[in-house]
Amino acid sequence: MNLNSSKYVEEIQLLQVDRYLPEKVRTYIEENYYAKVNQQAELDYAARNEDFIANPLQHVALYSDHGVVHVRDVARNILVVLEAIHGVLIPQREPLWFDFMKGYGIIIVYNHDMGMLDFSAFGRAMHPEFVTQEVFSPAFDQVIDTIWTENCGNVSWRLINLADQGALTEDPKLVLREMVSMGVAHSKSKVPIEVLNNPQQLRQVMRQIATVNLHHLYHQQQVTKAENKLAQAKNSLQEHLKIEKLEIALLQVKSTQAEFLKQGTSPRNERIDQYYSDFEKQAFSWLVCDHPETQALIVDVSDTIRALRAADALRQRGTVYKTSGGYQIFVDQNTAKAIYALQKGSGELFLLEAANPLNAGEANIASSELTANGDLRISFNRGSFSNQDAAQRAAYNLAVVIDDIQRDIIDTFSRPANANDVIKKSENIEILLENTDDNLDFAEAVQTELGKIASEIGLKSRVVPSLKNIDPEERDRYLIAKELDWSLEQKQKILLRVSQSGHKIQNIDPLKAFTDVYLSVLKEGETLIKAGSPPGFVYIPMGIGLVSNPLGGYQPQGVKPWIPLGNIRVIRGDQQEATITAEQQLELLIIPKEIYLKYWHNTYNAEEFSQQILRIYAEDNLQELEQIFNILRQVALIDKTLDDTEVDFIQQLLESYRINYSTEEVREKLLTGEDSDFVSLRQSVLDYLSLDPPYFQVGRLRDLLNLLVKVDEEISAEESLILSELNNLLDSYLADETIPKQFKVLIIPTTSEQNQGIRTIFPTAPKVENPWGKAYLCGSFYSKEYANMILQRYRNLNFYAILEEDEYSV
């Protein structure tokens, strides 16, 4: 779970929990079970316990929190987990059934650790089974009644409908109680994954847990556990001394069991009989029903239990890591050992150090979560310690914890070999270890220690960039973004586009540069980066639509595609200097700061810069020449003749750009291309002006056009007509505040057929009101002669066309 959430966010999340479980039920369970865990774990209470005084480090009081805060945390977390695994690690559900899973999930979260209120060795060992038997007790009747009558998570509604369809043969309310009792399955040791994956075995296990007296069950489990350890030692050819010790341990637990059996306690949980008339036939019978709707229920229940296990494994740790007594557990940077800050009710504070790898490791976990791709991502609070031994111990401690977490996660989502309905198989889940900002080698050390614990786990893990100290919204956007599956050729094309924006790409390795780079979609109105946010990611927009609003009183400006954004804050390690927002939807690449600085950050030296600038401006000049050459070519051919003087004039222009062509080559180029006409020539000029060329360049084009028309000392009627329009068109671009007079050509439909015809020919022509009624504006021109020529063309098509004049405006 990501722990960077405010108190306000936690309250909102608790309201989400209350949506699925009524507050009165939640508070009843908290007060009668989890609050008692907290109370017994307080130092003033625990210090009166002989077991605590004899060995405080092994006492439940110093275990990680199993009280009210813990159950609320797991309840909030199961909603997050279900969203993360939906359609990724579990099959996609319809919204109604997915909501059912959330409701059922919250219910079993709230009973999963109720048994921890018994601090004895027996209580700790049997707290999962306690859940099942407590649900089948009068103490839980009011909870079941409320869940049933208030239809929490639509659970009772679904069961009633199944009964109406004949898919349930037992009382639906009793089936609800059985489902709630399955909170025991949060324990992977009491309900192994192969049992969860097999409904028939699951039924057998649940029936045994529900009917066998917990003390009888406890002693039998202790014997079975000792027998298994001995068998494993013999099979692995352990030393004789170790086998001898295990044999003695087995004799001891059997002796303890024999002593217990002498007490004559009934081996049966007799409270269970009040709920069944025929336990053997009725109990958990729905787990072996072959009705399709009941089969769907079974899958939803088992997948919700998977989510419970994951949510419990991803519980909060690190900075907020505390014991059930509310005492903080943290890591000593000198020793990497766990320190417990225990406080008497009167205020005295005791710092107790322990070489407990699990607690020390958990205290250094900053966050643990499932990503949108179904991988396990873990970050650490610190990687820097005062000496190498401490750093090595810290890495080992984390490896122990990560191994425990990954077994809860990866094993939980494993399914039978023939299952093909899961998008991502458990064996493909990666363990992503975030770098630490204070020691970039630490995550690799943790990965090495993981490999020592189990080589296959080391192979599943890899180091990824740190997401610590990053704006939460930017972090969330990255984690839900799409992982790139591009080919090498696609990556090279992207780098080429980026280079065209000015970024130096020499020596950038496309295979490394796109590591952990994700693709995201930014919607209209969304903020990409806030001014003042810390350095986190560099973004490459792949389209237009972003606007930058800089600090310091500077004007907003549009952001061009393919230019890296946020790289300045990353390079200088400082806050963002402008807010970047989206005015329209676009795609962008998200590059973590570590990846950018390691693989993308590339600057020019003075010589490289000069060469690059010369090349860029040469390309700009060439582009300008191509545009101007096309316009001049069309002007020269507007009268359908190409005079030698016109060829010579254009040849001299090319030479000014250091392009040397012979007269015949120039003539051939001028005669190559589309035929010239008034409309296409005018459109070419409009296309050129739409690129916002510099004023001096537009003025130069105007002069060239006039010189070209006059160069043969004869101005044709066609040249005079188009030159008048183009001069006015270019003048309007060069005008400061005055907008020249325009001549508008309007077509007025006289029949419905004409109206339809105009809309077909001119689909984008705007409608305008005039004294003759509604008309379509088919063009605005700067030359009256040119406008009259266009007007006459429309009249020749039998349209009723008129000319309107606009006065000069300021």
Structure explained in plain terms:
- Residues 1-9 have low confidence and may be disordered.
- The chain is built from 33 helices and 19 strands.
- Helix 16 (292-313) runs antiparallel to helix 18.
- The protein has a 4-stranded mixed sheet.
- Helices cover 51% and strands 12% of the residues.
- The chain starts with 6 loop residues before the first helix and ends in a 5-residue tail after the last strand.
- The longest helix is centred in the last third of the chain and has 31 residues, at 606-636.
- With 810 residues, the chain is an alpha+beta fold.
- Strand 12 (546-550) and strand 13 form a beta hairpin.
Question: Over all CA atoms, what is the radius of gyration?
Answer: 38 Å
Number of helices, where a helix is a run of at least 4 consecutive DSSP H or I residues: 33
Question: What is the total tally of β strands?
Answer: 19
Low-confidence stretches: 1-9
Helix/sheet category: alpha+beta
Largest sheet: 4 strands, mixed
Looking across the biggest beta sheet, what order are the strands in? Answer: 4-5-6-7
The 3D shape can be described as elongated
Chain-averaged pLDDT? 87
- Distance, first to last CA: 62 Å
Helix content: 40-55%
Strand portion, in percent?
5-15%
SSE order and pairing:
Layout: H1 7-20, H2 23-41, H3 43-46, H4 50-54, H5 68-85, H6 95-109, H7 121-135, H8 141-149, H9 155-164, H10 172-180, H11 193-196, H12 199-211, H13 214-235, H14 240-261, H15 279-282, H16 292-313, E1 329-331, E2 338-343, E3 349-354, H17 357-363, E4 365-370, E5 376-380, H18 388-410, E6 431-434, H19 442-453, H20 455-460, E7 461-464, H21 472-480, E8 482-483, H22 488-499, H23 510-513, E9 518-522, E10 527-529, E11 537-541, E12 546-550, E13 557-559, H24 567-572, E14 578-582, E15 586-592, H25 593-600, H26 606-636, H27 644-656, H28 663-671, H29 678-689, H30 695-710, H31 717-734, E16 743-748, H32 752-761, E17 767-770, E18 773-781, H33 784-796, E19 800-805
Parallel strand pairs: 5-6, 6-7
Antiparallel strand pairs: 1-2, 2-3, 4-5, 8-9, 9-15, 10-14, 11-15, 12-13, 12-14, 16-18, 16-19, 17-18
